[in-house]
Amino acid sequence: AVAGNGQVAISDYISFMALEGDYSLDALVLYSSLDYTYAIGALSNLVSSDSENLTWLSARIRVNIAQEDYEAALTDLDVLETVADKSPFSLYQRAQCYQGMYEFSKQVDAMTALIALMETEDVDLYTMRGVAYRQMGNTDAAFMDFDKALQIAPTSASALAERGWTKYMLKKDEAALKDFTTAITYAEPNAWLYVQRGSVYQSLGDSTKAKADFETILSLHPSSADALLGMTISLDYLGQYDSAIDYATQLIDLQKNADNYFTRALLYIKVNNLPAADDDVREGLKIDNREGNLYLLRAYLHKLRYRKAEAEIDKKLAMDYNADAQLIQQLFP
User: Fold this and answer.
1) pTM of this prediction?
2) For residue 193, with 0-12 CB atoms within 10 Å meaning exposed, 13-18 middle and 19 or more buried, which class applies?
3) Phi and psi at residue 312, to the nearest 5°
4) Fewer CB under 10 Å: which end of the chain, C or N?
């Protein structure tokens, strides 16, 4: 390792732990994360040479999940469960695989079997299954699991946050706000929680409080794209367009995409900087020439310059590419 040959170091480490019988699964996965391909090769050799030692097979399952090779992990889980029956380990790994494969019904089945095997009720398992139910569109079952999780651990920030997010999805903004606020009081500083609460405040029309939450995030994570976008939107609603443009520019420096160019172009129009808006529309369309909202802004820029024919052409393109209907009505009443 000192000589810089990490692969040899890992190989020697695995061999040593096998000989000594003092093997740490977590340590192996930590070391193997340096090179998943090498780790799978090393573990496969160990599985072949010592098939009765299920530790190596379990380790390969975890590494395959880490590198998102869920099919390989499921194949190994089938082997593991034929030898050792279903266990909390195997069911949890199955649930992770199905989550990664977006097969949420199977994830729920695995989580349900896992919960039934556990000797004590686990807040994280109920929260995880609640999220899977939500992904399936079964929000009633999701709420039952989140509520159960909070019966077990009333101060669980993750259960509160997931329940709050589900309420926000259902446009239950006041109830979502309460859950996010409670979660923030129990959690370590968490950017995601502030982003969600800021979004709820914005949805409720309280741009000042939304802005305060996004400022909190940026004090912790200055390069948070979600917070930069949130600040841009909040300042826009507060009429502070120049400041909003500054944040939109930081966002574009971080993520050059059509949506972000659209956001800044619209702000440039609001401060009557039409050449800058032209540039942003052009740059956005270079990235995505099927973005309807950008064609809509280009149509509006033509309209502001009394180019009626060009405006109508771009307006039609905007509609063909599914531009926002409300924005169309706003710009072309």
Assistant:
1) 0.79
2) buried
3) -65, -40
4) C
Residues 80-83: contacts with CB under 8 Å, at least 24 apart: 80/54, 83/54
What's the rounded Cα separation, in Å, for the pair 23 and 39?
Answer: 15
CB atoms within 10 A of CB 93: 23
Q: How far apart are the first and last CA of the chain?
A: 69
Task: Provide the token pair at 213.
Answer: 């939450």
Inter-CA distances, 198 with 193, 229, 233, 263, Å: 8, 11, 11, 18
DSSP notation for 119-182: SS--HHHHHHHHHHHHHHT-HHHHHHHHHHHHHH-TT-HHHHHHHHHHHHHTT-HHHHHHHHHH
The answer to whether 63 touches 43, Cβ cutoff 8 Å, is yes
Q: What pLDDT, in 10s, does the model give residues 31-86?
A: 445 567 767 777 787 778 777 778 888 888 988 998 899 999 999 999 999 988 89
Structure token digits, residue 164 = 């709050």
Q: What is the pLDDT of residue 41?
A: 75
Residue 37, exposed/middle/buried by CB under 10 A (0-12, 13-18, 19+)? exposed
The CA distance from 109 to 207, in Å, is 42
